Amino acid sequence: MHPFVFYLAVTWIAALLAVNAYLVIWARSTAVRILAADTLTLVLIALLVLVAHANRSAYYLDAALALALLSFVAVLAAGRYWSIGRPF
Fold this sequence. Notes:
α1 runs antiparallel to α2 and α2 runs antiparallel to α3 (59-84). This protein has one domain (3-84). It has three helices and no strands. The chain has 88 residues and is mainly α. 86% of the residues lie in helices and 0% in strands.
């Protein structure tokens, strides 16, 4: 990957992290906070993939996969809590 594209992607992901962190903290609605937290995990996964590419290490990809699985389970629990009123 060309270094300019890499640094542009890292800058864009850092900006997305800042916006999502702001939404998680300051959003008024619980639904918006849940969606912002899910988006925050997706942006963190993208950052881990970029770090894995930069370091040429598969360990970061393993961490990204584990974070994706945890995020999926958390979204299922949040959706169930939002619709039924209890997570399990």
